[in-house]
Amino acid sequence: MYLLDTNIVSLFDPRRRAEAGPLLDWLRRHDRLIFLSVVTLTEIEAGYLKLLWDGKTARAAQIAALRDGLLADYSDRLLPIDRSVALTVARLAEAARPITLELADLQIAATAAVHGYTVLTRNLRHFTPTGVPALDPLVGLPL
């Protein structure tokens, strides 16, 4: 099972699909193995709101469509931050010392750790220090 980092989800954006290569087809074929963290929704919503604030309404509408599609497609595969994940965040941050990682990355890593999933990410350096399994699917698709 796999948990998508937000930078992988961003490849679902029509403007970035060319960067994804065969990844999007692979994700469609293995969709029951793919999960999202609520953290990814937070990051997408923050981007949407920033675009609105900046007056970029057309782009904001595209991001809103992406968000709404994710909510529909992953409704049964959207993982929360519960007590176990919250405690694991602190443990992973400690394990990564002296490297300081972003809270969102720690939350995604902790969600993957609690569920026994592998993170799919373009930024391995954000996850490797935690010891949580992570792969860059643009370098090599899993399975």
Automatic annotation (TrEMBL):
Q: Which residues form the PIN domain?
A: 2-125
Q: Which residues bind Mg(2+)?
A: D5, D105
Q: Which keywords accompany this UniProt record?
A: Hydrolase, Magnesium, Metal-binding, Nuclease, Toxin, Toxin-antitoxin system
Q: Name one GO molecular function term.
A: RNA nuclease activity
Look up the EC number in the record and give it. 3.1.-.-
- Name one matching Pfam family: PIN
What superkingdom heads the lineage? Answer: Bacteria
Q: Does the keyword Magnesium apply?
A: yes
| Enzyme class, broadest EC rank | hydrolase
- Report if keyword Nuclease is assigned: yes
Which InterPro entries does this UniProt record tie to the protein? PIN-like_dom_sf (IPR029060), PIN_dom (IPR002716), Type_II_TA_system_RNase (IPR050556), VapC_family (IPR022907)
Names of required cofactors: Mg(2+)
Please report which protein family the annotation says this sequence is part of: Belongs to the PINc/VapC protein family.
Concerning HAMAP family, the annotation shows:
VapC_Nob1
Purpose of the protein: Toxic component of a toxin-antitoxin (TA) system. An RNase.
Q: What is this protein called?
A: Ribonuclease VapC
- Which species is this record about? Prosthecodimorpha hirschii
